[in-house]
């Protein structure tokens, strides 16, 4: 028996990446109405990510008035990340590590969620979906479950009605499980983009490309997007 969809509006943070795509698919499966939020923060693949955002929004029939695009280019002014700072090169994947990689954008998810909460208050949404993945948490402190627990406590204290909640549906999934979930929900994987370095053809060797390709390999599937290199990651 199919579970009926929730009627209340939900905000989905959609970067254009595979994790946010699957998060959008899960939110679409649960809610009748969605609002999509995308942030341009001066990342090297900003143009490609925005293109993917609109393709995903089109797929899920999100109307134009519920697509919010916010310029947060102050994150590029702050720098400190290979995603935003032209003086820092995007590194090749060196294997799993407990070190925080230089692709980490300092406190980015807090800025992103804060804007989503502000918008949610305005449009009457009580759920905010974000595609944070714990598999990335050894490198990114703002992808840990403990971070979202603390963030939800802050949101409860700092909002008008205290009822807005951040939902992290893929946080405990491995990349292979995210790929499988995309297939299960018939999400348009070909419309997502994960590369940190390039917007024309995915490099295949940055951390994000490596984790994505490894996920497809472990799921026994082939990634449909184009790559400059397709190394074997197992």
Order of helices and strands: EHEHEHHEHEHH
In percent terms, what proportion of residues is strand? 5-15%
Give the termini separation.
38 Å
Q: Under the CATH scheme, which architecture would be assigned?
A: 3-Layer(aba) Sandwich
CATH superfamily: HUPs
Classification by helices and strands: alpha/beta
- State the helical fraction: 25-40%
Order of neighbouring strands in the sheet with most strands: 3-2-1-4-5
Specify the biggest β-sheet. 5 strands, parallel
CATH topology: Rossmann fold
- Quickly name the level 1 CATH class: Alpha Beta
Total of DSSP H or I helical runs spanning 4+ residues: 7
Report the principal-axis shape: globular
Structural notes for this entry:
The chain is of the alpha/beta class. It has 7 helices and 5 strands. It has a 5-stranded parallel β-sheet, sandwiched between helices. Strand 4, helix 5 and strand 5 form a beta-alpha-beta unit.
């Amino acid at each position: 028996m199919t579970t009926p969809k929730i009627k209340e509006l939900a905000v989905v943070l959609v970067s254009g990446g595979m994790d946010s795509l699957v998060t959008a698919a899960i939110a679409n499966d649960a809610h009748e109405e969605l609002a999509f939020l995308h942030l341009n923060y001066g990342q090297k693949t900003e143009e490609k990510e925005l293109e993917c955002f609109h393709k995903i929004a089109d797929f899920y029939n999100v109307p134009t008035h519920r697509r919010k695009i916010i310029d947060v280019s102050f994150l590029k002014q702050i720098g400190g990340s290979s995603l935003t700072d032209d003086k820092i090169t995007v590194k090749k994947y060196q294997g799993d590590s407990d070190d925080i990689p230089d692709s980490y954008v300092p406190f980015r998810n807090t800025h992103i969620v804060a804007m989503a909460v502000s918008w949610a208050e305005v449009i009457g949404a009580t759920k905010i979906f974000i595609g944070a993945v714990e598999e990335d948490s050894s490198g990114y402190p703002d992808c840990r479950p403990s971070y979202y627990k603390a963030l939800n406590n802050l949101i409860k204290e700092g909002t008008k009605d205290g009822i807005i909640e951040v939902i992290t549906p893929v946080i405990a999934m491995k990349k292979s499980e995210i790929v499988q979930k995309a297939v299960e929900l018939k999400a348009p994987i070909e419309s997502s983009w994960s590369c940190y370095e390039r917007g024309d053809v995915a490099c295949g060797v940055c951390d994000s490309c490596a984790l994505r390709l490894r996920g497809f390999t472990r799921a026994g599937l082939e990634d449909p997007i184009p790559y400059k290199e397709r190394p074997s990651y197992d």
